[in-house]
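Subject: Interface between my chains keeps coming out wrong

I've been trying for a while to get a sensible model of this assembly. When I model each chain on its own everything looks fine, but I need the whole thing in one frame so I can look at the contacts. Pasting all components below, labels as-is. Any help appreciated, I'm running out of ideas.
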Amino acid sequence: MHEPITEPAVEDPAVESVADLEDGPAESAADLEPPVEESLVEQDLLVEDVSIDGMCGVY
Amino acid sequence: MSVAVAPARLVDHFEAGLDAPICLTWELTYACNLACVHCLSSSGRRDPRELSTEECKSIIDELQRMQVFYVNIGGGEPTVRRDFWEVLDYATAHDVGVKFSTNGSRITPAIAERLAAADYVDVQISLDGASAEVNDRVRGAGSYATAIRAMERMHASGFRGFKVSVVMTRENVSQLDAFKAIADRFEAQLRITRLRPSGRGADVWAELHPTQQQQGELYQWLLAHGEGVLTGDSLFHLSAYGQSLPGLNLCGAGRVVCLIDPVGDVYACPFAIHDAFLAGNVRAPGGFAKVWRESELFTQLRRPQSPGVCGSCTHYDSCRGGCMAAKFFTGLPLDGPDPECVLGHGEHALAVRHGSTLPRPQADHSRRRPPDRACDEDPVTVFLRVSAPSRAS
Amino acid sequence: MTVTPHAVEAFDLDAAWALAPQVAIRPEPFGALAYHFGTRRLSFLKTPTLRSLVESLAAYPSGRAACLAVGIASEELPQYARSLSVLAGTSMIIRRETP
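Reply #2:
Try treating it as a single job with all components included. I did that and got this:
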C-alpha cells in the first residue's frame, strides 16, 4: 500500500522574512506574541526547510 | 554568548548556483498522443535523435553521482516511450526519485497498482479545466475524460497524494474551487502553475493568459485557500501584490534546476527551449555534469543579475523582475518588467514594444494534423515544420 | 538567549540519535542539503558543523557526545539542540536504541 506522500506545500512565509527581522528588546515570555517568538527562534536556527516543489523551473 | 553564525539566506546561496541541481525536468520524448494548444515543448512527433535507453541510464548514473534528489520526467507524453518503465525503475534504483507528468492515457488499472506499490515514484496528471468543456478546448477532445479516469484508477489503487497539475488560463481561473474539489475527491494534491508564452504557448498566450484582474483573484485565492496547494514556485511574480507566496520566489533556471530534453540538449528551464537558453548537450564530453558546472550560459545566470529598470521599483525584492522566459518570448528585455507584472508595467512595455518578429524555438515537434484519438502509436518525425513568425501579442 | 518550549520542543541531547535511513545528505559549501526520500522533504543545513553533526550522530552514544566530537562549544549547544529538534520533528533524524 502506497504511503501517503503529500508534499509539504510550503512553510509559513514568515520564515522567508526571518533574515529581515531585527532583534527586538528583551521581553518576558508572557508578553511575546507566539509568532514573534517563533521568528526569534528561527532566526538562529541552523535548519531551513524548503519545499522540493518550491523552485521555479520544474513543471 | 557565542553562537554559530547563520549566514546568508538560502535564496542567496541558490541564486549563485550549486554544484548540482536540486531537481530538474527531464523531457524523455517529444512524442505525444495529444496536441495541447499551449504545449511548452511544442511536442507531438518523436525526434529521431532521441536519447537511447542506454544513454538515459548514463544520465541517471550521472544524476546519482551528483546527488540530484529527484527529476520530473515529462515530454511530450513520457509513457509513450516503450522503455519508460525501464528508465523509471533504473532511476529509482539509483537514488534518483521520480515524479512523472502524464496526460493519463497510459494509466491502466494495472499500471496504477504498480505505481502504488513503487517506492520513490510520484505521479502528476495534467488537467487544464475542471470540466470537459474548458479542459478539452486546450487539451483536445476526450482528454478530460482520460485524465479523470487515470485519477480514478490511481485513487482506486491506493496511491495517495498524486499531483493534479493545472496551467492557469483566462478560461479556468473561475474554476479554482472546482479544481480543488477534484483533487480532494481523489485524495490528490492540487498544483496550479503559470501559463508561459513558450512553445506553442506563444501562439495562444495573448488570448489565454489570465487578465490582470484574474491574476489578482488567483493571488487572493492562494492566500485564502492555498494551504496544501502547490505552485512549483511558478507564480512568484504575484508576490509583488504583497505577502509573498510560499516558495523560494526565485528563478531557479540554471541555478538549482534545468531541463534535459529528449535529444540531450540542456536548457535553463523547460519554459526556455530556445538557443538563447541552450547550455550544451549531454552527449558532449563531460556529459551533463560538465554542462551544468561549466557552460557559459549557466555561469552567466549565476552572476548577480541586474534589475535594470525594475531596480527602482519597491516591489523588486518580491518579484525579482519575474520570469525570464515570459519576457523573452513576448519580446521584452530581460532586465525589464515581466509581461504580467502585477503593477501593469509589463502591459505598458508590450504596448510600446517596437516589434520585429518574436523569438521562436528553432525546432517545432508539433504534428501537422490533429491527432487521431484512436491512435496511440508513437508519432514519427517525417520532417520538422519551419515555424512562421508569430503575430505580436 | 532563552527559548520558550512551545516554539521548539525540548531535545534530548543525551539520547542516541541517527540520520533517518531514507535521508540523503549532500554537502554544499554553505553546509548541506538534506533530502528525505520518503517524505520528500528538503532541508537546508546552514553550517558545515551541523552537517558534520548529523552525519556523526549514529557513531556516538548520545547527541551530546556527537556535538562535542564535531567541535561544538558548550555555549553553542542550545542552538544546535534546537536545530536537531527541528530535524527530529521533520523525521530527518530518529532516536536509536543504544547497545
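Reply #3:
Confirming on my end. The radius of gyration of chain B is 20 Å.
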